[in-house]
């Protein structure tokens, strides 16, 4: 049984997959209505493929998962 890793999708490809404009993409991230990107190196971010797939299943109802702060 092999380990299946998520691919990271770059912004340009996210825009192509979703048909969102760059402005709309970042506005929806800020509102918690689109997955947050992950820092993959200095100045580079990407989105987990699985997070994008979850959003694509129901974009109108998708909400960012609640996070808990460590005390």
Automatic annotation (TrEMBL):
Q: Where is the signal peptide?
A: none
Taxonomy, superkingdom: Bacteria
The record's listing under Pfam families reads: Phage_AlpA
What InterPro entries has UniProt attached to this entry?
AlpA, Prophage_regulatory_activator
Question: Which Gene3D superfamilies does its entry note?
Answer: 1.10.238.160
Regions crossing the membrane: none
Q: What name is this protein filed under? A: Helix-turn-helix transcriptional regulator
Protein species of origin: Pseudomonas sp. WC2401
């Amino acid at each position: 049984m092999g380990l299946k890793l998520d691919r990271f999708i770059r912004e340009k490809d996210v825009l192509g997959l979703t048909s969102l404009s760059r402005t709309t993409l970042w506005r929806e991230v800020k509102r918690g209505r689109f997955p947050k990107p992950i820092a993959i190196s200095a100045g580079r971010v990407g989105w987990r493929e699985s997070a994008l797939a979850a959003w694509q299943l129901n974009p109108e109802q998708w909400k960012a998962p609640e996070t808990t702060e460590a005390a």
